[in-house]
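hey can u check if this looks right to u? its 328 residues, i copy pasted from the old doc so theres a chance i mangled smth
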Amino acid sequence: MGAVTDNTVSWIFRRACLAGLAMACMLSTSPVPAADTPAERPLVSRSQVLAGAQLGVSLNGIFQQPRAAATGYLPFISPVAVAARNSVVYIVDSGHRVVFRYDPATLSMSRFADTASGTASALAVGPDLSLYVAEVGIGQVMHYSWDGRPLPAFRHETALREPVSVVVDEPDGRVFIADSLYNHVVVFNGLGRALDVLRPDEAQSIAAMARGPDGLYLTDPLGRQVVVMTVDGRDLYSFGNEDLKMPRAIAVDRFNRVFVADDFDNTIKVFLNRELIATIGGSGAAPASFNRIAFLSLDRNTLYVADSLNGRVQSFQLSTLSSRRHGQ
């Protein structure tokens, strides 16, 4: 299927979420303590907390009838992955074993897909709005069209066993899948055929992966670092081993700011030019605090955090960089 316009997606959400659905989403907005380095503007301007939403109808294809009626407000149990594109947010909840699609315009969500094993570990949204769901339990990445229809999965009998991250490279449509068991990255074309295997020499382990200006950014918990390599597998550099204790989730923005979740102290550490420039959060249940960060993702200037054991997703509006970097 070709790319779908934002207007089409918006129309479908509004048709699905008919008048009469209560807008009872537990959404709160609060200021966030500024990062711990001075800057011309704060790194984070505000945060939002999403602990659940009104459950609306689910569509099974653009021209088909709704397959489920509204069932009222549904709280999250344990969100483990979140991804967004054009403000449409996908959330995997391992407690419900469901991928939800949340619409901020209506403050409601729908059941997008069931997870195959309850062990989904990562999400990625492609430029055509299709969704990739990494399923560790079955050793493959599920693929769905923008309206929820199953597409051929990404699998490899010998090279892919524990997929933990998915990156869709928009310039050429290649799909990069990080495998934590084999400590490598399997490269597929858009149709699911394996093209190559990339093995980062500097990484002792792989917990998560993100795309950034310099290539692929991998968190290495055993090495307590982030390893960066090109999309053709050449190691570039590593950083963070003086500041990170248990790095897991990662996201990288267009300014090459690297956001790394540290399981050791439930913080998000922010790096620029390989230097720590800010620390966000800490252990707790208050806004801008965390209890096991399972996943990080970015959509434009919004950072989404799967705050798993707190049963919620938090989002943070990020500043854009001026001529000087944060901390200068």
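The chain has a mean pLDDT of 85.
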